[in-house]
From TrEMBL:
Keywords: Cell membrane, Membrane, Transmembrane, Transmembrane helix, Transport. Belongs to the binding-protein-dependent transport system permease family. CysTW subfamily. The gene is pstA. This is Phosphate transport system permease protein PstA. It comes from Photobacterium alginatilyticum. Pfam families: BPD_transp_1. It is a multi-pass membrane protein.
Length: 537
């Protein structure tokens, strides 16, 4: 036994066991998040509950959101009448009823003893809307241009409504945005040159174009106002839902398994491709996906050359003295600084100092409204570049140290300068280590939220940092981020219970984005490693 301990085998097995447990824990956590998030898009069955609450009989229609076994003593302590309950425990159901404008709460809590009957609601429809969330009811008829039509024509009506909404959205995002941009340019030109006849004529022309677009949008909205869907809710009341607010409709209790899978896939596609609605509790997260990926790519473009140049100086040029040791200690200590401190630094230095100076020099016509002197995606990328800089420096320096000195000496002996040796021999061989540092930097930067709250991220960004207006890439704009979206939906939502599945879905999506970025970098690193392996040998 003593020889076995001396051989080190127990520690190898202990280490392997710890690594295995860590992997199992991480995979289990990812599976839990994925299950909780992706199951939200599955068409859950809708039930009709006949309940009797203190002699008041009523029908409730909704999805079973959560089932929990609670003790009778706990209910009694909460002030619930438990005289009719037999036994020590009872099931409590959390029912999602929707119909937000007609019911005070999205959820109703029912005890098992309060339910007299529970049946699947035949022909019940779930109606997804732009406002007020989902509506549960029985469609009765479809009104098109003031005429009542059969429900068989509802699908065509929804397609027409979607087409009209798309045209209105296109007019707002392209034509109206272009006119507003040109008017803003004319205002700046007027502040510089004064009121000139040419500027006034251009403004009048733009205002006439805007009036024409406005008339077109009003005509399109009138087309939508004439269409509606008549639905009977759970209380038997007829409700008129404007078709301009209806996005989709499905009958969950009538779908086959294949149809449910197809519906599940469509809902996931909408989640990753649409804009958010209802204070981020409905709709998709495409702006947050775009902002996260774009910010990480911009950060990578900034941090890689800075980290590589710093590592080259420390390893190839800096002397072995106390000053160099002090720099190395400072680099290592920077890796341990809390991220919120970087956010405060970015706000004070990049936003107020650098951005304010840029505004005074190049955008004085727009002051006091700031252009770069306000949080934006450029300052967010720079802040995270500084935050991840130590990782790239250390990884690159380790890669440079692994390159044999004979390679450098051979290049210098053949007449190459030190700069040529670095650029053509050393850096290509050290590129796998550089990519390793970049992978670690991306993994950390993509999940950071605290510093971004100070230097550019917002709850809702009206436009993306990229559009068809010159200069096409707008680094001064604020942006959305998946990490901040999780925080906002989970802790700042007006209806946390209803938005909880979106927290899981967005968390799983953020992990997927980070894994995708890392796998891309790992693939590039492995390719470079294979390419220069023969030189290292």
């Amino acid at each position: 036994m003593g020889n076995w301990f001396k051989s080190g085998s127990p520690w190898i097995w202990l280490t392997a066991g710890a690594v295995s447990l860590s992997l199992v824990a991480v995979l289990g956590l990812l599976l839990l998040i994925g299950w909780k998030g992706l199951s939200y898009f599955w068409p859950a069955p809708v039930y009709q509950f006949d309940v009797d609450i203190n002699g008041n009989r009523q029908a409730i229609i909704g999805e079973i959101y959560e089932t929990k076994s609670v003790s009778v003593r706990q209910l009694a302590e909460a002030g619930v009448d438990v005289s009719a309950i037999e036994g020590e425990r009872v099931f409590r159901y959390l029912i999602k009823t929707g119909n937000r404008e007609r019911v005070e709460l999205d959820f109703i809590t029912l005890l098992e003893t309060q339910i007299t009957s529970k049946t699947l609601a035949d022909d019940i429809a779930v109606i997804d809307r732009i406002k007020n969330g989902k509506f549960y009811g029985y469609p009765v008829s479809f009104i098109d241009d003031g005429q009542s039509k059969s429900l068989a024509e509802l699908e065509l009506g929804l397609l027409d409504a979607d087409r009209v909404r798309g045209e209105i959205d296109s007019l707002l995002k392209t034509d109206v945005a272009a006119i507003n941009h040109q008017l803003d340019q004319l205002r700046q030109q007027e502040r510089r040159q004064g009121k000139l006849p040419a500027i006034t004529a251009q403004r009048l022309l733009l205002e006439q174009r805007y009036a024409g677009i406005e008339q077109r949008m009003l005509a399109l909205r009138k087309l939508l106002e004439q269409d509606a869907l008549l639905v009977r809710d759970m209380a038997g009341t007829m409700v008129k839902l404007p078709l301009e607010q209806v996005l989709d409709i499905w009958y969950p209790n009538n779908l086959t398994t294949i149809e449910k899978v197809a519906h599940w896939g469509r809902q996931i596609g909408k989640f990753v491709s649409e804009d958010p609605r209802e204070a981020n509790t409905e709709g998709g997260v495409f702006p947050a996906i775009f902002g996260t990926v774009f910010m990480v790519l911009l950060m990578s473009v900034i941090v890689t050359p800075l980290g590589v140049m710093a590592a080259i100086y420390l390893h190839e040029y800096a002397g072995k003295n106390q000053f160099t040791k002090l720099i190395r200690v400072a680099v290592i200590n920077l890796a341990g600084v809390p991220s919120i401190v970087y956010g405060v630094f970015g706000l004070g230095f990049f936003v107020y100092m650098v951005g304010g100076t840029i505004d005074e020099i190049f955008f004085s016509d727009q002051l006091p409204a700031p252009t770069f002197g306000t949080p934006g995606i450029l300052w967010s990328a720079l802040t995270l570049a500084i935050l991840t800089l130590p990782v790239v420096i250390v990884s690159t320096e380790e890669g440079l140290a692994r390159i044999p000195s004979s390679v450098r000496h051979g290049s210098l002996a053949l007449g190459a300068t030190q700069a040529e040796t670095l650029w053509r021999i050393v850096l290509p061989m050290a590129s796998p280590a550089i990519m390793t540092g970049l992978i670690l930097a991306v993994a950390r930067a993509a999940g950071e939220v605290a510093p971004l709250m100070l230097v550019g991220v917002v709850k809702m960004a009206p436009t993306l940092p990229v559009d068809n207006l010159f200069p096409y890439l707008h680094l001064d704009r604020k942006f959305m981020h998946l990490g901040y979206h999780i925080y906002d939906v989970g802790f700042q939502s007006p209806n946390v219970e209803a938005a909880r599945p979106l927290v899981y879905a967005t968390s799983f999506l953020l992990v997927t984005v980070i894994v995708g970025l890392n796998l891309t970098a790992i693939g590039i690193r492995n390719h470079l490693r294979e390419k220069y392996r023969s030189l290292e040998q």
